[in-house]
Write a structure and sequence with these properties.
binds 2-amino-4-trifluoromethylsulfanyl-butyric acid; 26% strand; binds cobalt (II) ion; alpha+beta
Length: 273
């Protein structure tokens, strides 16, 4: 893999890993903050009876009203601002008019563009009162994301990130989805490198100051295998068991990393009340 200064990089995915300077960090801070504020804004709305379509429409208005553009709208034909993945839906759940019900868990994933920069983040939301297995899965998934983030510093590798996530999640008798991964982002939505949520220490790409990417582990209570529904988007667990995901957009710094999508209201993980 070759590394290029982001200023000289083409605006199409060409396999190179971009290295960004202060201007990129400033841009990603703004984009990341708006995405995180959108998830904060939705927290009190996620209750039994609300539809994911209503949540999506509210997210759309919030992003537009605050100077952003929803990156998913029109992306590869996708028609919505958010992905809303309920219970056994792993990711890319399409917002629907069906009301959420007590005991559901839902991931809301939003990506915004601000001044050309992408902020991509997701969190799990409990709907009403959820059972202990669901609560445990949500906590394991959040902790696995933060352990992956803790492995980010120059000189470490993408394999170190994946290993930290896999070791912890599997140690908790959960499984890691292999079919989707984190990704470089910046002026592009999905760029190099791929960030697998499993791996071996020292393998993969060496991390360098100025790299921007997401970490977004999907963790299952059952088997890791997924299937895509006939709508072409919705990914579900084959065994229909529960799955959870959290996502942050981060930038590699001299010492470690900066998280661009931290919740300004400290709504990092449930309970949000
Ligand atoms: N936000 C998702 C991610 O984390 C991508 C969604 S693509 C869409 O990469 F088209 F489904 F919106
Ligand atoms: Co992402
Ligand atoms: Co996302």
């Amino acid at each position: 893999m070759n590394y290029v200064d982001a200023i000289d990089a083409p605006l199409e995915r060409d396999g190179s890993i971009k290295l960004h300077g202060p201007e990129g960090f400033e841009g990603m801070r703004k984009a990341g903050r708006l995405a995180a504020e959108c998830l904060d804004m939705l927290a009190p709305m996620v209750k039994p009876g609300v539809s994911t379509e209503t949540l999506d429409r509210t997210a759309f208005e919030f992003v537009i009203d605050n100077g952003g553009v929803p990156a998913c709208l029109g992306y590869r034909g996708y028609q919505h601002t958010t992905c809303t993945s309920v219970n056994h839906v792993v990711c890319h759940g399409i917002p629907s008019p069906k009301p959420l019900k007590d005991g559901d868990i839902v991931n809301i994933d939003v990506t915004v563009i601000v001044d050309g920069w992408h902020g991509d983040t997701s969190r799990m939301y409990p709907v009403g009162v959820i059972n202990r297995r669901a609560e445990r899965l949500i906590n394991i998934t959040y902790d696995s994301l933060m352990l992956g983030i803790a492995a980010v510093k120059p000189g470490n590798t993408t394999g170190d990130i994946g290993h930290a996530i896999q070791k912890f999640a599997e140690g908790e008798r959960c499984s890691v989805v292999q079919d989707f991964c984190g990704h470089g982002l910046g002026k592009l939505f999905h760029d190099a490198p791929n960030i697998l949520h499993l791996g071996r220490p020292g393998q993969g790409e060496v991390l360098k100051e100025g790299m921007f990417f997401t970490i977004e582990p999907m963790i299952n209570l059952g088997k890791p295998t997924v299937k895509i529904l006939s709508d072409g988007w919705t990914a579900v667990t084959r065994d229909r068991k529960l799955t959870a995901q959290f996502e942050h957009s981060i930038g590699v710094t001299k010492e470690g990393c900066e998280i661009f999508t931290l919740s300004p209201k400290d709504l990092h993980r449930p309970p949000y009340v």
